[in-house]
Specification:
One of its GO terms (molecular function) is oxidoreductase activity. The protein has helices spanning about 10-15, 40-45, 50-60, 70-95, 95-100, 135-140, 150-155, 160-185, 275-280, 340-350, 360-370, and strands at about 35-40, 65, 110-115, 130-135, 205-210, 220-225, 230-235, 240, 260, 265-270, 290, 300-310. The chain is of the alpha+beta class. The two termini are about 25 Å apart.
């Protein structure tokens, strides 16, 4: 049963200028938007009701808005996010040829640079229309024994990157603490699987999606679920879409891709595959994609800032013990014993083996990924 969701009425969204980005074209008012819960970080500090709403959102859709205003940590994240957006613009001014030397997929790593048009995004074999840079937590916090090389620009802004990593992870741990309580797990169970001082696939990603030709707009980032535990997303232009699960769609209707409207002062939080595995499907990791922004926003270059929190490398992704809330495994079901590190590596790189592939071969690669289902 779907629980009640909270979205702002369209008229309120139009008149509340604190939720819009004044330097960018407005999000169209005539486009349906996803019914995400809108939660408050400051309220989560003290309100059991807000905590229950977080748990409901995590069970229904696995996506929610989080208002960061009027909270010390939240306000700091907003400032640090602004700084990272500025760093991201400078990063891409280096040019694709310069950044290409930091693509490490030949080493079996998804960290570093992913170039424009280097991954399959749909069943037609089309390639993506964005580029992004993954900044590994282990490198920037000094945990890697053999750190990768990164552009000098990122080292010059290392303090800003590390500050954002630390604060984003504090937010992740707060969310995990609430989920831990509602799941009835022993204290600190989830937090103990996500120590920032342990090696993991945690990363900061800065994404650039340039405007697409009006006559040939395609998916910029193909449909997927996130690989890890908690994702913290900042964006200012539309483009992110979710496909609601059948449980949230009126009877007799098919799920439709729906835009998630960016709200100023908020981040978008979503759960990843690890939380599904830990809770045997109780919590949700919802399918989403990125397409061209709607309306006048389509003429703008779209940047996104993402913090991916993943379980520690050696954590096995399976149902957690010690909870009477998490559903038991069905009789005879044996869980796959795969570590967080192996799972993320496979998921992150499976659609990037596109060099010299024909369109037919790219279609086959997509079909083999299981995303065509």
């Amino acid at each position: 049963m779907a629980t009640e969701t909270e979205t702002l009425p369209p008229t309120q969204l139009i008149t509340d200028h604190t939720l819009t980005f004044p330097d960018l074209p407005p999000f169209p008012t005539n486009i349906p938007t996803a019914p995400l819960h809108r939660l408050s970080l400051s309220a989560l500090r003290t309100s059991p009701v807000e905590s229950t709403r977080l748990f409901s959102a995590s069970k229904d859709l696995g996506f929610f808005y989080l208002d960061l205003r009027d909270d010390v940590l939240g306000e700091r994240l907003l400032r640090e996010g602004d700084a990272l957006f500025a760093i991201g613009e400078k990063l891409y001014e280096l040019g694709r040829e310069e950044l290409q030397q930091y693509d490490y997929k030949h080493l079996g790593s998804y960290m570093g640079y992913k170039g424009y048009g280097s991954a399959v995004v749909d069943e037609k074999g089309n390639l993506d229309r964005n580029e992004f840079y993954n900044m590994p937590k282990d490198d920037f916090l000094g945990l890697s024994q053999t750190p990768l090389a990164h552009p000098p620009l990122l080292y010059e802004h290392g303090d800003s990157i590390r500050a954002y990593m630390h604060d984003a992870h504090k937010l992740v741990l707060l969310i995990l603490t609430h989920l831990n309580t509602h799941l009835g797990l022993p204290p600190d169970t989830l937090a103990s699987l996500h120590r920032q001082t342990a090696k993991s696939g945690d990363q900061v990603r800065i994404v650039k999606s340039p405007p697409q030709p009006a006559s040939d707009m395609r998916t910029a980032l193909g449909k997927h679920t996130d690989y890890g535990s908690i994702t913290i997303l900042f964006n200012r232009l539309g483009g992110l879409q979710i496909l609601p699960p059948p449980s949230l769609v009126p009877a007799g209707q098919e799920p439709q891709w729906t835009y998630v409207k960016p709200l100023r002062g908020h981040c978008i939080v979503n759960l990843g595959d690890a939380m599904v595995k830990f809770t045997n499907g109780l919590l949700k990791s919802n399918i989403h994609r990125v397409i061209s922004p709607p309306g006048e926003q389509a003429r703008e270059t779209r940047y996104s800032l993402v913090y991916f929190a993943r379980p520690e490398d050696e954590v096995v992704l399976k149902r957690l013990e010690g909870s009477e809330v998490i559903p038991p495994l069905e009789e005879g079901v044996a869980e796959e014993q795969i570590s967080s590190k192996k799972w993320i590596e496979w998921k992150a790189l499976r659609l990037r083996k596109v060099e010299q592939l024909s369109e037919v071969e790219r279609k086959k690669l997509w079909d083999e990924s299981g995303l065509g289902i």
